[in-house]
Design brief:
CATH superfamily of the largest domain: Dihydroxyacetone kinase, domain 1
CATH architecture of the largest domain: 3-Layer(aba) Sandwich
Strand order of the largest sheet: 1-2-4-3-5-6
Domain DhaL: 362-561
CATH class of the largest domain: Alpha Beta
Number of domains: 2
GO cellular component, one term: cytosol
Radius of gyration: 32 Å
Oligomer: single chain
Order of helices and strands: HEEEEHEHEHHEEEHEHEEHHHHHHHHHH
Distance between the termini: 65 Å
Shape: elongated
InterPro entries: DhaK_dom (IPR004006), DhaL_dom (IPR004007), DhaL_dom_sf (IPR036117), Dihydroxyacetone_Kinase (IPR050861)
Protein name: Dihydroxyacetone kinase
Mean pLDDT: 92
GO molecular function: ATP binding; glycerone kinase activity
Length: 568
Amino acid sequence: MKKLINDPRHLVREVLEGIADTTPGLALLDTENVLIRWDESVPDQRPVAVLSGGGSGHEPGHAGYVGTGMLTAAIAGDVFTSPSVDAVLAGIKAVAGPRGAVLVVKNYTGDRLNFGLAAEMATAQGIPTEIVVVADDVALRDIVPRERRRGIAGTVLVHKVAGSAAASGLPLEQVVAQARATAQAVGTMGVALGACTVPAVGKPGFTLGEDEIEIGLGIHGEKGVERVQMQSADMLVDRVVDTIILDKGLVAEQRVAILVNGLGSTPPIELTIVARRALARAREKGLVVERLYSGVFLSALDMPGFSISMLPLTDTLLHALDAPTEARAWNCDGRIAHQRRIVATPQTASTELNQPRGKDAHTIRAVAEAIATELIAQEPLLAHLDSQAGDGDLGASMVRGAEAIRALPDNAFNTPASACTAIADALRRAIAGSSGPFYAVGLVRAASILVDKAEASSEDWLAAFTAAVDAVEELGGARVGNRTMVDALRPAADAWRIELERGAQPAAAFDAATMAAQDGADLTASMAPSLGRASYLGDRAKGIKDGGAVAVAIWLNAIREQIGGKAD
């Protein structure tokens, strides 16, 4: 287990110290793990205090929601362990006055007992304190009575509503009423792709097969209510949203807020896909989505997965969600587009396909096909080379490029210039990363040399090839010796030129270019890279040929084999 922690025994305190250090307006109690909103006013002048807490490991909850407009204090227990009665009582007494306090508690036995007893003691000592229990986990609808359901991510929405009500100066009874109405209305359900690891334990709480997931889990590393085969994101989201709608009795035209929550290790790219489908599914069911919040709000340490919460809205609840807050973890206003706007993509292709067909059109097309065929055949080799010194996508990129070349219409090859321009457009769109732009700029530059030439001589093709190499060097800044595709391109251009100047036959001159490219690609294995991703490896890349240079040698050799003695 690798964790960026120090001593697990001091983990919670150090987390709270970090939050206090980096967030103005907060303070820590000296002997308890309680984070409070710093307030210099006398207790008699303070509004109703809103406190929450529980076991740690749910960051940014609960400490991340301490701030004007949300929580007044957060009481942190050890990881997945309820804080003590004394810690809760100390938190209440540190921030609350005669107007009282509201404790927002997730529905777990330890939290109910410790927060409940602290509330009784605070009330007896002159601070009227009420408990609001959140039991929003709809996954347990067929397993336990409603009052025994777990409290999970919907708790954050209760924090927001209660905090807004308190900040507006409402009395304790009304703050409690709004918080309880929210807790009773919200429904949540989660999905886990894997387990989390409690630092003090050092191993995952359960194991899953490569194609297994858990449906309907809590936030403490426990298993879900069902283990199923992995499904697409849309299928999982549909199941979760449909279950919440069924359990909460939501009907068409109902206004709702949706909270898409990451469980700790789900990257934003995946959460966005979940949010996209949650919005679409709710709309398919006739719901009117007023707000959608997406991010990590209440995690389960490093668990991969998500939960979705849905809250039926009233004007009062929507106003509370929109009310300002200084709590840093509430960092999204939730507003969404009325509908997805799709606009026409401007034309980016520069290919003119109305040129008269030249006599070399068939040969040019055949050469392009030969290149495509060989690049597809060599995909494993290119992928292997790139995976050792790059990100491993070169083989797939070359295949996409090859398929794009094959898809071009016949009239794209009517002239040398139209062929270069059409292939440039195709590769630019098909190949991601750096290869696409490099090939495109080279071909565009080559087309500028061949323009207005219905036919091209060997000298014309050399001039176009040399101009292409110049363009690649100018765009990327690479030179021979930098361990890039230029290590094959430039030697090929030089050898081709030298042989033609010596009076060699065109086919023989191109043979020399092909061999020079291969030699240049071979030499890259002895070079320390200075450009591109391989440069991050330094000498560790030695012994591995540069994939880009090898690709150049491959397609030049494909041209040589296709044209044979036809290079004139």
